[in-house]
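Collaborator request, handled under Task 6.
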Amino acid sequence: MEQSTVLAARLDRWAQARPLLVDGLLAGLIWLVFGLLSVVAGSTGLIVATATILPLALRRRRPTALLAWSAAVFALQLVVLPIPLPANIAQALVIYTVAAHVASLPVRLCALGTALAGSLAAGFRWSTEPEHTRNALVIAAFLAVFAGLIWLIGNVVRGRETNMRALRKAYAKLEESRRQRERFLAQRERVAAAREIHDIVAHSLTVVIVQADGAEYAAEHARPWDRRDARAVLATIARSARTALAEVRDVIDVLRDPEAADDPAGASVGVADLGQLVAAVREAGLPVEVHADPAAFEQTPAAVRFAVLRVVRESLTNVLKHAGAEATARVAVERTPEAVRVHVEDDGAGCAVGVVAAEPGHGLDGMRERLRALDGTLAAGPRPNGGFGVEAIIPIPVGGVRR
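Structure tokens returned to the collaborator:
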């Protein structure tokens, strides 16, 4: 059954692609069967049959013209021949063609009216005695019913084809929408990956640069180093580089495994991760005071904890970049029943917002974009007494789970 269905579908596509060839073959076949049988009416019958059947080769290309031609030939037949011909089956095919392939309702109604008028005329022409009138009405009624059914079938087929075309267009639009959605999701994933990698690399390179600059200054101006001093600096640089490499690999793993994208940091982010981040910044030479409420990392969605860690990282990175050598930083993370609040401020030189957020998706704008996905907010700017401050508020969804 499945193979026959596939074969029928292939034949239908082949026929739809070659309408002129199919109609020509159909006209030739009808002429060989019904046209030659019309020779019972003599040479006149054969001529009329040929004039009736052969134009069917253009039935779908010129259906309206074929209707007019068929009506004229049928009227001529009624004049020159007193009997029906087997070729008159072609008139039924003309009615079907107009009903199935002409979009204009007036033309289709004209075809129906012509068919009914021809049925009545044929009934009286082909009727015989006795009871000529009664026989004529019976023949006319039979022909009219037959023509009406053919016309209705054609309209049903036309409606089906119209619906199929509409469905194909709708499917094409849905397919295009699906491709656009896939492109949008891919672009969003690329932007998210770029933002993650920017945060990771910017923080790690800032630590490395601060350590390297400090080591260079100390090597040139300070007392001679012993091995422990050099080893401490190099260990900090190596640890920052390894951490950055591992986190970049995590981002790439998320891109390879879309199911992991909903929880990019995993479910294990906690106070210990915040402590490691702060320790790395302290090793880079920035004194940091931390007050972290453990409740902010307990029974809190992983996405919220991850956002907290990213806000602290980006803020401390900005302090390292812009606050100056003598600056200190304070980090406070607290949880309320409705949200987690993050405060990061410093007492250094500060910087203008435009310097930090020079490009969309970087710096402060990157943090805002991350928090916006969680319905959070970010406020940042110079402090009245000097330095720079960042405050983030991340709502906790009801039930503690965000999807």
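The cover message to the collaborator said: "The longest helix spans residues 132-221. The CA atoms of residues 200 and 247 lie 7 Å apart. Please let us know whether this matches your experimental observations."
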